[in-house]
Amino acid sequence: IPNSSHHANNMVSFRKKKSSKNVEAPPTKGGESTSSSTTPLEKAAADDAREPETTKAPIPSRPPQMEDIPDLLETMTTEKGEKSAAATKRIYELCDVGHKQNRVPMVCSGKYDVLTPLAQCLTQESGDGRHLACLALNNLSIPTENKRVMALGPSSSAVIGGLCKVIAEDKQESYLCCICLMNLSFLEASITTMLQHSPVPDGSDPMPPLHNSESLIRILEKLLKNAPAVPKSGSGKSEGVRWACGLIKNLAKSEENASLFGKTDIPKCVVGNIRNTTAPPSRWTSNSLEDFSLFVILNLAQWPVSRQALIDAGAIDEIKPIMAEGDLQGLKATMACAFLGAPWSDFPDGGSNAAKSISELMTNIIEKKGKDGQYAYGVFKLYTATKAYRDLCCAANSADGNEGDSNTKVLAVPSAVALCLQVVSDLVLAADDEINGGSKYVPDVKSAEYSASAVSYMLPAILQAGDPPRKSIQSEKACGEIATMLTQYANLAGTSSAGKESALRAAEEIKAGSGSARPILEISHESWTQYRKREGQPLDQFLSQEKGIEVDESGPLDFLPCVNSESQCTIM
Q: How far apart are CA 320 and CA 318, in angstroms?
């Protein structure tokens, strides 16, 4: 998540920097700063990172070098108080903003184990050593290579356990520990393992996270539940809750984790954050408590295992008004309302804004780009956007009456229909090893399922006949080709039963509609065909093979090699 004008799949620095990743620890006094203008939070963070007061310096006053690390680690682990804190400070200086190049070697070179001693420092009663260890771990958690070692490597239990302990004890560094855990959670491969953190005494049986008050999930729940309804902005308590919500936002991206969150009071807490805010959504900045909380609602809403907990907490009523915002917050609220089953009448302007913003998001994800000033590429997954579109189509379809145009007409614009066809057909091509010229963007099976279902729900609008009714060769070809493609998708080994049912039902209806001109279907088919041409895909893949049987007076000639082939042959 970049600075206040962009959301990215990575983290931001405390210093507002256009392309920065992760949240960095601020410099200590006298350290290098990367910005001439600092926010009150930055000033407070920089002041917090004070130099420990030492009466004598046991370590040379020259700048620390990488070769000093073994001696520094020994001092950290064998000494106490000032000497240990001074050594920890040198470790922090080796990975501060002016020494970014040292971060990966310090963790990944195999020469040192800096993580275990730093994790041990988190348990110190001395505030200086603990604070400096938090700052160092924050900076080391930024490079992607380090995330894997810190979250999944041999020291991961010590690191995550140490960070959890500081949060559980409500120390002043609690917010720094939440930031560090959030940094680690940007490695999606780590999020399931992280939320399973549930320490027990040596020799004891493992304990499920929900049954253990010292597990990460219960510590986060307690932090959110104990927060004041309107925390003082910029206070240590409010910062801890804010960054905890940033961590939960990332952890909620997996269905397995969402299942755990749904059994806690965390959904109720994040809905409460939205309910209690006094700032209008247009003023919510990137990485604010409200921004993170709405992201948590969005991520939990898309999973059936956690969806009900949000509904029970009154999420729809709280986020419904935010849909009218034409920005990132409006988009998040719109998708969350679609996931939560909000009725079609809840979507502003007859659903047209929702249709435009979500179809644009689908297009941007496939084209691997973001939207300027709102979100960067990678923030949203294709399966999230396609599921939101499907659920929107379902809400529109369910609200249809017996008269007039279908509500799905605002959704069934040819570009969006073509996009759904593209997602499904790209998966079909990717699944066939014999085809050359597949898509550069291979969608996941869930996205294809949601896209096929969206087409199925939009059929009342897609198959609307032209006025006046007329015959059309183009519509007949479009119906045949799209029905064949959906049937091929339904027959793929990896297609779910829901995807298969939607695709076959749609194929049947489309095939039955081939007698008349269907303008929306025609234009959508043409747009889909142009895409396949640009991609160099085989254009005969979905042409119907049912060309009829040649006969003469002695009966069918289907044994001849030329029948049903493209070759020119003469039947005598």
A: 6
